[in-house]
Structure formats: structure tokens, C-alpha cells
Amino acid sequence: MDYENTLLTDYELLLIEKGNDIKRCTPAELIHQSLIRICKECYCDRICDKEIKRIEHLKALGDIMEGAVHDINNLLSTIAGYVQLSLAMDERPEIMKYLDIINKTALDGRNTIDNIKSYIRGSSSNSKAYYSFDDIVNKCIVMTKYKFKTSAIKENKDLEIDISLNSNALIYGNEYEIRHSLLNIIFNGIDAMGDSGVLTIKTYDKNGKAIVEISDTGKGIDEEDLDRIFDPYYTTKGSTSTGLGLNIVKNVVENHNGRIHIDSKVGKGTKFILSFPILEGGEETAPSIGSGLQRV
Length: 296
Known about the structure:
alpha+beta; Heat Shock Protein 90; elongated; 9 strands; two-stranded antiparallel ribbon; five-stranded mixed sheet
């Protein structure tokens, strides 16, 4: 220690050997450089500690999710099993229709769980097939019809739905992802309208694209919010929303080589326009076509 003190106090210039080079510096410069190096090492240590803790947290979260996924999967299997049993025992058309929707929704839940399991295990499940575009949209309508006043369950609301499905297109994609993206937009429109309003759903083919328009007569979206509406975790609904829904919708559409556009005016409502490439060649080109629910 006395030797180091002597170097720093009795000499105006120090020669420091660094590899094959000789560097000259004053004691003050040496102290300054040493402090900078110590600070950098301490900072790196803190960053490493935080990263290790984050990795440990994610691993623990993954273990918890693995168990929760297993339990939820069992619950959904029970629901689907008893629905199938009920379908076999009850032949009333309306009851069978509702049970079929419940069964389909339970199977969707299992698909969601399978996606989570695949993500936790580091694999990916993104199966695609050929589907009638209108059938996908119609499934969404069937699954949300209970929200409107044509349903026996009205929840004291005066919501109407206007449907015009005119697409003859086949598209290639993941039916589950596309359908749940559309459901997300539909439920957003229902939430925006509150107790009354009209939700309009139109499909048509134009310039090699299958297009769906979903518009509501809700409160609309501010211009400043429109610029960030697809950002992850951005929401105008407060703690009732994760802010991930529309970000997922955008990613799904783009992963299917599609496009999404939004028009909105405050106090007037919001319109989402989604377009997907049409399968060229028609049904002869499609080796397998997914089945749809009964049209409403």
C-alpha cells in the first residue's frame, strides 16, 4: 500500500505497461480511469444480477403456468365431454345449436392452452389450411349473437347487428387465429357502444383480396389514441384491459400477408377493415377446406 501511495504522490508522470504498449499518464488520470473501470464493473454486476433474477422469475412463472395449463386443459376437456354427451341425448335443434357453440368454444380454449404449452416448451404450433372466408366470419357472428337483442339473453341492452356476407373467397391461414382476431374487434365494438347501437359486419371480394368490414356506432377513438392503438400494452380501457388485443390482431393479419386499416370519429363510431389474399384457382386448388358453423 505504501508503494502505491508513493507512486501517486511522489511522481508527476507514470509509465504504465499495457501489453506491448507503454502508456503515459498522471496520477490523477490513473485514479480517474480506475474509478471509471470500477464503476463499470459494479454496473455490469448489477445488470447481471438483475438478469439472473429475471431468468429465475421467468422459469418459476413457466413452472406455475405449466401446472395451470394442465389443470385448465382438464376442465375444458370435462366441459367438451359433457357437451358432446348432451348433443347425443338432446335432439332439439336450438339446444343442439347452442351446445355446438359451447363445444366449439371449449375446443378453442384447448387450442389456446396448447399454444401456451408450445410457447413454454420453446416450440411453435401454427397449422394452416384452406377456409371459406365467409364461414370464418359467420362463426364469429354465431359466437357473439347472444350479445344482441335478437337473442333471448339481452342483458337489458338494445344492441343490433347488421350482417352482409358476400365473399366467395377461399383463404389460406390459421382459422383459429383469424377468428379470434375478428372476435376481438367485435367485442371491442360491443364494449364501445355500451347499452345501444348497431354493429355492422360486411364481407366482399375486391382486387384479389377477401375483405371484412366491422363497424360500430360507439364513442369512437381520439386521434392521438389512433396513432398508438396497435402498440402492445396500450389501452384506453384502464385496468379492465391488457392492451394486447389489437396488437395481437395486427400481428395475426400481417402474418397472413393481410392488411388492417381503421377509421374512427369521436362520437360517431369506429370501422376496422381487414383484407386477406384470396386463394387463386378456387376450390380445385384447395386440398382441404375447414368446416364452418351453421349460418345465421
